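Obj: model holo form, ligand = nicotinamide-adenine-dinucleotide.
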Amino acid sequence: MRNYEARQRVLVTGGAGFLGSHLIDRLLERGDEVICADNLFTGSKRNIEHLHGHPRFEFVRHDVTFPLYIEADAIYNLACPASPIHYQHDPVQTTKTSVHGAINMLGLAKRLRCRIFQASTSEVYGDPSVHPQTEAYWGNVNPIGIRSCYDEGKRCAETLFFDYHRQHGLDIKVARIFNTYGPRMHPNDGRVVSNFIVQALRGEPITIYGEGQQTRSFCYVDDLVEGFLRLMDTEAGFTGPVNLGNPGEFTIRELAEKVIALTGSASKLEFRPLPADDPLQRKPDITIAQEKLGWQPQVALEEGLTRTIAYFDGLLAGQGATTAA
Ligand code: NAD
Ligand code: UDP
Ligand code: UDP
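Output (holo structure tokens):
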């Protein structure tokens, strides 16, 4: 627990979402005061209901595309729908959230002269022609496709962070997050880990897009949040971007087989068309995170999947996934 002088008031945008709610748990555990600002578009009160009445926690329903005038010592900017189904639901709003949201939170950080963290993404690398992806790689992104609202929105947000840093001397920390999974993922957000687990637990077919030979690297949420905290605690002047993710690389078919084995499900594989612009391969080079943050993931995929399966098992048993928002 931090003493009074060391205690910070931390603003977490998107704090009612999957990653944000885990981050808030860790910040409260270490003694910080937390303001969660979220418009509950993809997040849910359920993710933060255990914090109801916590003396150092406050929830504000707020859309980051509008200005926010509050006091804080540090800002984590996570507000943005993250799964393709969600960010493609209202693509214009997705770009606005990334770009106007970044401008407003940077304006807030500028007024407060406080440190600000950006949840960027491996999607800035697009369908990468460099493998594994290092931070020096500029990416291969389609500017006019169905993923562009998210990819280009996040790229523009990075531009804004670095221009506020250069032009206004802002203390920025930019993390490029690779696919992350764990408890509190939204059961209907269409992401591969939540889809496969929910399908396996219900005995429904496991939907593999394409032939399942595309690869992803899956990081367990606790590991990721540890990376956030370490990046935020680096010395002023260290801006990133820093890749945060698990370098273990698996094909989507391998993931399906692991989920079937760990759930003991009788589900069969079902092959569906590959969505447009779906990256063929993705794996972070985490050398910078290892050297600058002394960070690397600790939780192996089987272990993380086992914990996530236990979460969804409880959720489905409790109320049925379709009403679990
Ligand atoms: P999530 O959808 O669970 O959380 C996003 C949160 O932002 C939700 O609570 C949502 O209600 C809120 N939000 C959306 N638009 C908003 C707006 N205009 N104003 C205020 N709040 C708004 O997704 P997540 O997986 O927790 O992702 C959090 C952040 O991390 C996002 O910025 C995402 O782009 C980034 N990220 C996540 C992953 C991943 O694998 N989970 C990978 C790369 C980057
Ligand atoms: N802003 C905010 N809270 C603040 C300060 C600024 O939400 O405490 C928003 C405001 O909408 C502003 C934006 O951040 O337009 C960018 O601020 P900046 O100072 O960079 O530029 P401005 O537009 O004020 O010249
Ligand atoms: N995917 C799949 N079946 C599903 C959901 C996703 O095969 O039910 C694939 C998807 O086409 C992609 C990978 O799994 O190649 C990861 O998808 P996700 O949406 O989780 O993340 P992203 O594509 O943003 O990395």
